[in-house]
Amino acid sequence: MKKFIAPILIGAVFATASIAADDSLRAEIEALKAQMAELKEAQSKVNMIALKKQFSEVKAHSSGDNVKFSIDFRSAYDYIEHKTTAGMGMTVGSTGSITMAPKGATKSTNSIWTNKLNLKMAAQPVENLIFKGTLSAYKTYGQNNISTNSMFQTFDWYSSNKPSDSTIRLSEAYFIYFGQIEDVPYTVSFGRRPSINGFMVNLREDNDHPASPVGHNINMEFDGASFKFDFDKLSGVSGLYFKLCIGRGFSDATGTYTNSFGAPYGKDDGNPNMDLIGLLAQLYDNGQYKVMANYFHGYNMMGMKTDAMMTQFQGFKDVGDLSGGSLSVQINGIGDEINDFLDDTIFFASFAFSKTDPNSNGMLGSMDKETGTSYYAGVQIPAFMEADRIGFEYNHGSKYWRSFTYGEDTLAGSKLASRGDAYEIYYNLPLINKNLTAQLRYTYIDYDYAGSDSFFGMSGNPDGIFSPMGASTSYIESAQNIRAYLRYRY
Predict the structure, then answer these.
(1) What pLDDT is recorded for position 259?
(2) pLDDT digit string, tens, across residues 366-412
(3) Cβ distance 100 to 119 under 8 Å?
(4) What would the CATH number be for the domain defined by 72-489?
(5) What 3-state DSSP class applies to 341?
(6) Which residues sit opposite 288 in a β-bridge?
(7) SS3 letters for 4-68?
(8) Could you give the 3-state DSSP secondary structure of residue 302?
């Protein structure tokens, strides 16, 4: 009998526990249902449209209401060699004193270590307005005597692209406004222009995207405005646009009380405003083939002004006007999938001209209108690994060729300004993606005439004659520059 009572008692206990567990679970489920009902009611009272709008405003504020910074830092070694002809040597001191003395043919070499920092910034508070700027410091290692012995070293056209001291200078600062007239998008921009390392020149500088101008004849810093109109959709021509550029290279203002107590920013009749107006046109760009052209006219070009005996530099004087233009083509990938090597090859060619219109002071040592020409070609090919590149470039300038390439970053002098032949080979090697790269570059310039990349008066005379002395000056006959650098970008 006891054997039957024990199982019955055990079963009764489990049954009672099971009933109690079911009651407890049922109570929890009812409580959860009540909480869900409360949440539903609360959610129905939320204005989802207002919430989404508020979220969008917060997102826009966090992404647009700030300035984004990036770094471009380069540490480089340059070996420079110059060979000069015999003639009269001229030295211009920091106070403007000019010393002329007979000078024989010479050869000079030097090696220079430099650091170059570009601190870039960008901001876009609203969709159709952006700001961009660059602060630059370009210095030699340690101290130097460059600024002491050369009064032109910090000239505004190239101050942040010639090594000197650790002074931070303004390289770029401009805004761009985006608008649209019917089917024609347009932009308006004012400020310190992005005019260094433009079309074609960006390749040797290992920059993926060129700046605004055609680098063959304009590669220098300047202040001004641009007005760009896109006609590709309206015309059906891929990439077609026109850009009107207006710049000022010298402002007619004394800015000093020297020799008088006049207004510090009064008019300086001896140095009139030096202005430039130009038209930049992208005639075609489908990603593989790109054709660019430009035409410009410069007013009141500056030449050096001295006393009658040429013993003291007295500023600058107006020597006349200068016009010029270029037509350039670049091919990104030769042919249509012929092979991987040609698909990854870049080729470009460019022709440019310049023409003087002198006043009574004469230009480039001549009282006549003189025309100069230049041609420029290059190829960049795949190298030994996946992303490294090798480039070859050549350019030639005629006797009266005159460019605005003062900002070219070649310590031996602007190769694109050369009146003669220039040859260059370079090797670009990514070490850690585009964040850390290296370059080895060799540039050789063989000058046929004097005055390359000088000012527009007697110092630009291709025959090397310095009026009023009538003596042939010593000038650079050939130059070479070997550069090796490491570059960090982020």
Answers:
(1) 57
(2) 999 999 999 999 999 999 998 999 999 999 999 999 999 999 999 99
(3) no
(4) 2.40.160
(5) helix
(6) none
(7) HHHHHHHHHHHHHHHHHHHHHHHHHHHHHHHHHHHHHHHHHCCCHHHHHHHHHHHHHHHHHCCCE
(8) strand
Cα gap 332→92, rounded to integer Å? 45
Rounded to whole angstroms, the Cα distance separating 211 from 170 reads 16
Vertex 66: Cα angle to 63 and 72 (nearest 5): 105
Average pLDDT for the chain: 86
The type of residue at 357 is D
Residue 288 has pLDDT above 50, yes or no: yes
CA atoms within 13 A on the CB side of 400: 20
Locus of tokens 């000022």: 248
Q: Return the amino acid letter for 410.
A: T
pLDDT of residue 291: 98
What pTM was computed for the model?
0.83
Alpha helices in 182-331 (DSSP H): 201-204, 232-235
Q: Which residue has the tokens 């009812």?
A: 30
Q: Which two tokens stand for residue 84?
A: 């000069």
Helix (H, G, I), strand (E, B) or coil at 158: coil
- CA 305 vs. chain centroid, Å, equals 31
Decide the pairing of beta strands 289-306 and 184-192: unpaired
Separation between Cα atoms, residue 45 and residue 51, nearest integer Å: 12
